[in-house]
Amino acid sequence: MYRVLIYNDTRFLSRPFCVSNSDLDRSQSKGIMGCWEGAFSLVLYNRLFINILSASGQVLQATACILACLLVLSTLRVTSVNAVVRGRDGLTSASQSHHTHPGTEAEGIRLSAGPDAETAVRVEEIKAAIAGVHTPNIEALAAALGLKRDQIGRKAFEDSETGMVPLNGFGGDAGSIVAVKWRPQREAATAQEEGAMPNLYLLSWDGNSWQVSYLTEAADTLTVQALPVAADTVPLFAVILFRGETAAPYPVIFRYQNHRASLAWDARSDASSYTGYDFGSVQFEKAKGADVPVMLVMGRADPGLLEFPTTSDQSDRGFQAATLYVWQNNAYVPLRTEYTHNADYVLYRFIASLHLHDYKTAYSLIDPARFLKTDKPTLQMFEDRIANVWPEFTDDHIFEVPAEAGQGSHMFILRLGGGKINVYTPSFSGAPDYRITGLERTEAQE
After folding, report:
1. Which of 7, 230, 234, 249 has the most CB atoms less than 10 A away?
2. What is the mean pLDDT of each run of 10 residues along the chain (446 residues)?
């Protein structure tokens, strides 16, 4: 299903396009429709401009600064959208139950803010540790938790297994608020032996004492940030966890109210329609006229039929993806996904098209005369060539880009078993079309 979804949503990034109900049904954003005109580009810095026409007829606008060499949406216009962004009454509490998602149980990772016995014990432990702190001074708070001064601050918090970071952006009367990665000192001595991981908490000074909210286990690299919401809206903040060797980001959204945090949405839950991209990033931008910001997720696409190396030093292979999410029905839902149009993207589309026996689309991705080596190429000639010479592309195979592929090479392989592999070397025309002009295949031993 994931392969088909990505294939059906591939479009040229620099051309106008329309979003239909069927497009959005595939991305689980039912009920939203609109005609978009947009352009993506690779730049050092750019701005994201979003105009969304809400159900009430009000235009919502947002701008964002996109960092180096990631996909950016330079212009984006929607002419008709139904109930894209919910108002102040639309942000209701999410369940605080113990969610699971693929890989969770095996990895021993528990999702956010569950009212289970273990969480209650953790909260009581940190409450006991700070019971003697009767001041909003965060250094006194850190000392009570066994944290040193050099463990306070964003860099120390994000780079260390335990630490504390002050948080801003919760409103003028919020008082002192900190995020803390912490485990009891009795566990710290044996943590390395037992593999115990710290937990993440939100601590908020209410004028008399520090209130404690358990957020999640801190097994992954993570960041915490307040979200840009309307002035009269309940403050929101995000915990963004970067998981695995490819550092795919997974945001978890919390509401902050009465000095406590409550779970609003978790990208890791089974009910989520979120996709985390390898070596990715997440940005939130306030939309004028809306209470909940839009979310832009960027990173390297993982299409499934063509697997790319999982190491960041192979950055010259693969293609980038950017997905715009809007808040609807108490969750972030994908509104649109776009991909960089480069040689690997064309190669993936070629493989995906043949996998689905969509010869017409695959034919549109080649230079027919050069690929078929004839002055009078036809679609039927192409189909016959695939059936007679390249039948493996129409079967259910997974192709790979090996980690040792040379710089600038577009080589990929197919494992045949018994240590044998097919090595494919495609050639392309120049930018911007990157049409496939040839494909050579040799058999080799691994």
Report:
1. 249
2. 31 32 35 30 32 33 34 30 31 34 34 65 93 94 94 91 92 81 73 70 95 92 91 90 92 95 96 94 87 94 87 75 94 95 96 97 98 97 97 95 80 94 96 96 93
